[in-house]
Design goal:
The structure holds two protein chains of two kinds.
Chain A lengths: L10 H15 L17 H4 L6 H14 L3 E5 L4 H11 L4 E5 L3 H5 L4 H5 L5 E5 L5 H10 L2 E5 L2 E3 L4 E5 L6 H5 L3 E7 L3 E2 L2 H13 L6 E5 L4 E2 L7 E2 L6 E7 L3
Parallel strand pairs in A: 1-12, 2-3, 2-4, 4-7, 5-8, 7-12
Antiparallel strand pairs in A: 5-6, 6-9, 10-11
Chain B lengths: L9 H9 L2 H25 L2 H17 L1 H14 L3 E5 L2 H14 L4 E4 L3 H5 L2 H6 L5 E4 L2 H8 L17 H9 L9 H17 L3 E4 L3 E3 L5 E5 L3 H5 L5 E7 L3 E2 L2 H16 L6 E5 L12 E7 L22 H5 L1 H6 L10 H12 L1 H4 L11 H5 L6 H15 L6 H14 L1 H14 L4 E2 L14 E2 L8 H7 L4 E2 L8 H7 L19
Parallel strand pairs in B: 1-10, 2-3, 2-4, 4-7, 5-8, 7-10
Antiparallel strand pairs in B: 5-6, 6-9, 11-12, 12-13
Classes of the chains: A alpha/beta, B alpha/beta.
InterPro entries (chain A): FTHF_cligase-like_sf, LUD_dom, NagB/RpiA_transferase-like
Protein name (chain A): LUD domain-containing protein
InterPro entries (chain B): 4Fe4S_Fe-S-bd (IPR017896), 4Fe4S_Fe_S_CS (IPR017900), FTHF_cligase-like_sf (IPR024185), Helical_ferredxn (IPR009051), LUD_dom (IPR003741), LutB/LldF (IPR004452), NagB/RpiA_transferase-like (IPR037171)
């Protein structure tokens, strides 16, 4: 008996399946190249297109708070003090940081803070550690302070990608997640964020994951009562850097 | 479990649900709450009907060129060293994943919520592997698993039929000693499952949309369990219905927005993730990435009048507006796909013999069609199933069918029709009561039929048991005779209305 596993990525398996469904549909294969998708309207691109940057920021803050994200606006010069105070206020004992380059930290004036954030246990997500060590560090963390790319006004969302310095477990396993996002990363809509990621990919960005995160994890599975904090972080903060 | 959740007859299931007062109240409360949230979320977006046009166009376009898009997607997964298996049916799909789990020596399998994995009966198959553990990680699915794999009630809220006290009792078996506060119950599950997650070696997720032009999958969730399922295990299997594909991330984000607003009244789900196999330099995510693309009967709808059901994005809005679902609840349908979606999809995937009753669990009110974000003409498809069952497959072998045939013959013949009219009064004597205390004068002058013996066909019971039916009058006193016997009288004088004109 042959193994079904041998049929994965097997041309016969694929061709038989696709020919069968093409026959069932009564439509020929390989007609798409002459009929690419052309959207009948431009609604996704037009969403919030008439808003000024100030209006977009206000919409972003309102929508972020509606998904139970905490929104904080600070200039870069005040980030280190804010983060130190925040960690103290929340009694953070295990902090997780990304393995940013000095330039990435310095962009936000956080190089010194990242070396001495004033928390008892500090771990860094890094490809120098094993997968298991990174995941254990993330699981132990009361707080992860990571980097976000875009703040989406229409949905109150911050986007992040998977990279060696900040992996998937970094965003999902800690109890609290704080994402630093520059105000210049403010975009109107999920469409605009997707367009920007497509541009970056065309210019060489290589990542396995684009995460669109809108607040802390939640569920309405028990009597449809909203419970904030299920498997992912129980608190989520967007730290918007006003002058970056 | 497979697509069928019960072997009981449809009427028995409905009767059982009728008696479940908590479930019925919960469904009504959910429908009302979702109405407010859904409507608000759609209004905030604006131009909702034009968004629906766009979503419909995306889904119809993809179905039209489905083999081409699947080919493009498979090519892109393979280019990234992923693996794609095309499964024509349930058996192929679950046997493939079982073989893979055995080959990978999977010990701790973790799943995130996925309708198609329930459809292919994956849990049962994986639990047959000696030494393998399996946990559903979605809160609702976990509750159902702990309650001996109870049946789901809804595709978005599978535990709608359970109250917090029942859930508390289930969790107490796992060591929970807290109260019945959902917040505390959920936090208990967070801790319980986190320990399991940390040692999970084989992850299984569904797929909201596969992205043809980059080989990624797109998942929309709120709890974070799906993302952890895609982060920690070294092997990830994605199971997707073959129709769940879009050209690019641009079309996916349109549908993500519409799905969240339609399903739960959110602008976007908390986690909207586009992901694939771990790339060079990344620390976590799957080293091994497998996609199982499942037909399992979907191709029976392709190229037919039922093709639009494959546009479905599984938001559940149709069941959230359905008046029948409101009364019957999810279990009554006997399918993992309840409500209007299930009435159309279940007979296609599971066959007419198994699900022949479902197209009749519908008042054809069209509320489902009106709310559907991808404009599936649900009530037309439900009616189309009835036509297939009656005219195509001749599935009605009941007494009703025989009676209606006899009525057809009788009404075609003036002699038979006249004889029936003459016999109606004397024949109904034994089932009629002439004494009608409290009845409106003139309503039941000849009495009322309010009883027929059990042996009488259900078509007649259907009328008599729930309605007050006046006994037919004597043939000589019926309307035809009355009309013939009465000459037109002189028109009554027009009385001028107060403040109006005589001819108003």
């Amino acid at each position: 008996m042959t193994s079904l596993l041998d049929q994965a990525n097997n041309k016969d398996n694929r061709e038989q399946f696709l020919n069968r469904i093409a026959k069932a549909a009564g439509r020929p294969r390989h007609a798409l190249k002459d009929h690419p998708f052309k959207p009948l309207n431009t609604l996704p691109d037009d969403l919030l297109a008439d808003k000024s940057p100030e209006e977009l920021l206000n919409i972003a803050i309102k929508n972020s708070e509606s998904v139970n994200a905490q929104v904080v606006l600070k200039p870069a010069a005040q980030l280190a003090d804010f983060l130190t105070a925040y960690a103290k206020q929340e009694n953070i004992s295990h902090l997780l940081l990304p393995n940013n380059t000095p330039e990435e930290w310095e962009k936000y004036g956080l190089m010194e803070w990242s070396k001495n954030p004033g928390v008892e246990n500090v771990a860094v997500w890094s490809d120098k550690l094993s997968r298991q060590e990174n995941e254990e560090n993330a699981n132990q963390a009361d707080l992860a302070v990571g980097m976000g790319d875009y703040l989406i006004a229409a949905t109150g969302t911050v986007t992040v990608i998977n990279r060696s310095a900040q992996g998937r477990g970094f965003d999902y396993l800690p109890t609290r997640l704080l994402l630093i996002v520059p105000k210049s990363g403010l975009v109107k809509s999920t469409r605009e964020a997707v367009n920007k990621y497509n541009e970056q990919t065309a210019n060489g960005l290589s990542t396995s994951t684009f995460n669109f995160i809108s607040g802390p994890s939640n569920s309405g599975d028990i009597e449809m009562e909203l419970v904030v904090g299920v498997h992912g972080p129980v608190e989520c903060t967007y730290l918007i850097v006003e002058d970056r | 479990m497979g697509i069928s959740t019960s072997d009981k007859p449809f009427i028995t299931r409905v009767k059982e649900d009728e008696a479940d007062h908590f479930m019925r109240a919960a469904v009504a409360k959910a429908q009302d709450a979702q109405f407010i949230k859904r409507t608000q979320a759609r209004r905030e977006l604006g131009n909702w009907n034009e968004w629906r046009d766009l979503a419909e166009q995306i889904r119809q376009h993809v179905l039209k060129y489905l083999p081409d898009y699947l080919e493009e997607f498979a090519d892109n997964v393979e280019k990234q060293d992923g693996h794609v298996f095309f499964a024509k049916d349930e058996d192929e799909a679950h046997n493939f994943i079982k073989e893979l789990a055995i080959a990978k020596k999977a010990k701790n399998i973790v799943k995130s919520k996925s309708m198609v994995t329930t459809e292919i009966d994956l849990d049962k198959t994986l639990l047959s592997i000696p030494g393998a553990n399996l946990l559903e990680s979605d809160l609702a699915e976990f509750i159902l698993q702990e309650d001996n794999w109870d049946e789901p009630t809804h595709i978005v809220f599978p535990t709608l039929h359970k109250n917090r006290d029942q859930i508390q009792r289930e969790f107490q078996k796992l060591g929970y000693d807290g109260d019945d506060d959902p917040q505390h119950e959920a936090r208990f599950v967070r801790g319980y499952l986190r320990k399991y997650f940390m040692k999970a070696d084989f992850g299984i997720t569904g797929c909201n949309f596969a992205i043809a032009d980059n080989g990624m999958i797109n998942l929309d969730t709120n709890e974070g369990n799906a993302d952890i399922t895609m982060a920690i295990p070294k092997t990830q299997v994605v199971v997707m219905g073959m129709e769940r594909i879009v050209p690019s991330m641009k079309e996916a984000e349109v549908l993500d927005n519409m799905l969240a607003r339609s399903a739960v009244g959110q602008k976007l789900t908390t986690y909207c993730t586009f992901t694939g196999r771990k790339k060079g330099g990344e620390v976590d995510g799957p080293d091994d990435f497998w996609v199982v693309i499942v037909d399992d009967g979907r191709s029976k709808a392709l190229g037919t009048e039922f093709e639009p059901i494959l546009q479905c994005i599984r938001c559940g809005a149709c069941m959230n507006v359905c008046p029948v679902y409101r009364q019957v609840g999810g279990k009554g349908y006997g399918s993992i796909y309840p409500g209007p979606l299930g009435e159309v999809l279940s007979p296609i995937l599971g066959g007419y013999e198994k699900f022949k009753d479902l197209p009749y669990a519908c008042s054809l009110c069209a509320a489902c069609t009106e709310t559907c974000p991808v404009k599936i003409p649900l009530q037309h498809l439900i009616r189309e199933h009835r036509i297939v069952e009656m005219d195509g497959k001749h599935m009605d072998h009941s007494m009703t069918n025989l009676i209606l045939k006899m009525v057809g013959k009788g009404t075609q013949s003036p002699f038979l029709f006249g004889s029936a009219m003459k016999m109606a009064h004397p024949a109904s004597n034994m089932f009629s009561q002439t004494e009608q205390p409290g009845a409106v004068e003139g309503m039941y002058d000849e009495g009322k039929i309010d009883y027929v013996p059990k042996i009488v066909p259900k078509l007649i019971h259907g009328w008599i048991d729930t309605r007050d039916v006046p006994r037919p009058v004597k043939a000589k006193e019926n309307f035809r005779h009355w009309f013939k016997d009465h000459k037109p009288e002189e028109m009554a004088p027009v009385v001028k209305k107060e403040g109006g004109h005589a001819n108003d």
